[in-house]
Design a protein that fits this description.
It is a single chain. The protein has 83 residues and is of the alpha+beta class. It has one domain. It has a 4-stranded antiparallel sheet, covered by helices on one side.
Length: 83
């Protein structure tokens, strides 16, 4: 299993930075085909965890990549792909 540990001393990144990091990890784990799940959307969960997910058109079969990253230090909490 691939493990990713990213720690940031100052994790006050802009929203775009979190999406870029997620995209990099999604491609590394799932390959270039994951880029078909763009746009990637980031939301802040409970004020301390960034959640970045892919998008899919309604009525299309398949899932999207999902990443959770702590806002405080950038630690990856969860990374998976819905089916």
């Amino acid at each position: 299993m691939n493990r990713f540990i990213l720690h940031f001393h100052n994790s006050n990144f802009c929203l775009r930075k979190y999406i870029q990091i997620a995209q990099m990890l999604f491609v590394r784990v799932y390959g270039e085909k994951v880029l078909k799940k763009k746009p990637f959307v980031a939301t802040l969960k409970n004020g301390n965890v960034w959640v970045v997910e892919g998008s899919i058109d309604k009525g299309v079969d398949g899932g999207v990549p999902h990443l959770e990253m702590q806002k405080s230090d950038g630690k990856i909490v969860d990374l998976f792909h819905y089916k």
